[in-house]
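Protocol step 4 of 6: structure prediction from sequence.
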Amino acid sequence: MKKFLVFLILCIGFCFVAANAEESKELTRSEFCTRAYSIVKYIGCMGNVEITKTFEDCNDKAVNEMCTMGIVIGREDGNFYPEDKITREEAIAIYGRLCKYNNLPVTLSEFVYADDADISQWAKEDVYIAYHGGLLGDAENVNPSGGINGEEVDEISKRFYTACTGETYPPEDK
């Protein structure tokens, strides 16, 4: 019995460590879009989207719906590259576009990230919209070319939920 309990405790510990390791790993572009799409669908702020625009290298529904809406854009060559790691500026820019799509009130200020010069021109406006929409907390840097992990995306998603609904996530009645 004692060996069984030790074994059980080790298994539970291993599962906990594995789950935490999964959340702390950097996400692919497809994994990120699936998470962002899930919170948007959960909130119900997207409605039904007839897919009219797709990427040749990706047949993921979440990616293609958000592509049709102009939320997800591909790389310069028009492909999506679903298995590439998503950069922080790509992920944050998507949330900035979601803020615009949902007409969230955003008041821009003079705030500038310490690493503003490293943020790509194509992403800069959307990154600052996400910041001023309250999605990024009080970070001083974006680290635009760095990766983003599941824990970070979950925090941004919670803030996005609150910005859209005025409620704290998770809601008690859903």
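Step 5 (inspection) to follow. Residues 29 and 172 are 30 Å apart (CA to CA).
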